[in-house]
Design goal:
The protein has about 220 residues and is mainly α. It has 11 helices and no strands. It has a domain of about 110 residues: Orthogonal Bundle (Cytochrome Bc1 Complex, Chain D, domain 2), CATH 1.10.760.10. The structure holds heme C.
Length: about 220
């Protein structure tokens, strides 16, 4: 016996066509994209959306301060110093360090070299924060990247409050300095320490203490790449 006759196939096709809806006329019609510019649908302006009623206040308050919320001055240039709401202090940098450790170091690494654990596991390596281009970029740039995202890095605006984004941006500057410090920035005490580093502790025993073991493991891990 044949599995299905020609007639049944045709019937089946018709049923399917009816179920999926054979009426492209309504689906393929002209339409506007949301907020499409240059389309004056309501005759109120060059947009497919209605204009805001005069005096409208955004939910959760208006974020009119470009410097604080967007990292740019009134001319649209990136800030080269913290906005006036932020005071540079040891406390702020500590907060930045802590937040950086939570949100950024998994990819950018503790020193900002772009070698965090996620990168070691295969994610795209970001540029080292101590690369000349980034050393020269203003502090507002770091705030902007965290706020809007950058290439494959997503935005942190919904996760990190504005104040903390500034604290992190300030801390990135600390990281950059830590990798490019010149001797004249050190106190005499630190300079002395750098010149005469304390002798490394050698553990008693079989010659290979804990530290030596760790070191070997690291070398092995590197070799795998
Ligand atoms: C999930 C991994 C990841 C995390 C977490 C992350 N980033 Fe990134 N970041 C990247 C990658 C990847 C790039 C490069 C993106 C590209 O080039 O497409 C990047 C780029 C950047 C840049 C731009 C560098 C340039 O080349 O101009 C800055 C600045 C930056 N990140 C800062 C931060 C800060 C600050 C944090 C923490 C709030 C953070 N990132 C968290 C992955 C990450």
């Amino acid at each position: 016996m044949k599995w299905m006759s020609m007639k049944n196939w045709v019937l089946c096709g018709l049923v399917l066509a009816t179920m999926t809806g054979c009426h492209p006329d309504l689906w393929n019609q002209d339409r506007y994209e949301p907020l499409e510019s240059g389309a004056s649908v309501f005759g109120e302006g060059e947009s497919s959306a209605r204009m805001l009623v005069e005096g409208t206040v955004p939910y959760q308050g208006a974020k009119l301060d470009d410097a604080y919320y967007r990292g740019r001055n009134t001319n649209g240039e990136l800030l080269t110093a913290l906005p006036e709401q932020m005071t540079l202090s040891r406390e702020l940098l500590k907060r930045g360090q802590e937040r950086y450790g939570i949100y950024c170091s998994p990819c950018h690494g503790d020193q900002g070299a772009g070698d965090g654990m996620i990168v070691q596991r295969g994610f795209v390596p970001p540029t080292n924060f101590s690369a000349p281009r980034l050393l020269e970029s203003p502090v507002g740039y770091y705030f902007e990247v965290m706020t809007n995202g950058f290439g494959r890095m997503y935005s942190y605006a919904s996760r990190i409050p504005v104040e903390d984004r500034w604290a992190i941006a300030a801390y990135v500057r600390v990281l950059q300095l830590s990798q490019n410090a010149t001797p004249d920035l050190l106190t005499d005490e630190l300079l002395n320490k750098a010149k005469n580093p304390p002798a490394p502790k050698v553990e008693a025993g079989h010659g290979a203490g804990h530290e030596a073991d760790n070191h070997e493991n690291k070398e092995e891990a590197k070799g795998e790449h």
